[in-house]
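Need a sequence for this fold. Nothing fancy.
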């Protein structure tokens, strides 16, 4: 997967295809809600396995029944196609 910083217009165009994802402080983010804390923990574990396989690790903030996922690519200093691929895979397991 390509590790290059996307231009603002590319980020905006890509976000249109990702339901619930938004641009926030230089990251693409999405908040998921769960019926229980344990369901959120299980989802965090699933994301961790995806992230490890891709060698691309998101910021995860689990607070009771809500999980905020934030993605950017540190080595390019912004958002890359890799972030959108991980977002796609995360949505696919939800």
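Here you go.
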């Amino acid at each position: 997967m390509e590790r290059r910083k996307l231009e603002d217009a590319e980020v905006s165009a890509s976000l249109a295809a990702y339901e619930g994802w938004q641009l926030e402080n230089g990251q693409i983010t999405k908040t998921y809600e769960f019926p229980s804390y344990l369901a959120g923990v299980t989802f965090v574990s699933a994301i961790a396995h995806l992230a490890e396989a891709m060698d691309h690790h998101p910021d995860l903030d689990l607070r009771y029944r809500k999980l905020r996922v934030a993605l950017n690519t540190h080595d390019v200093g912004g958002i890359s196609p890799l972030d959108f691929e991980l977002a796609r895979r995360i949505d696919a397991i939800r």
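For context: The first helix runs from residue 8 to 15.
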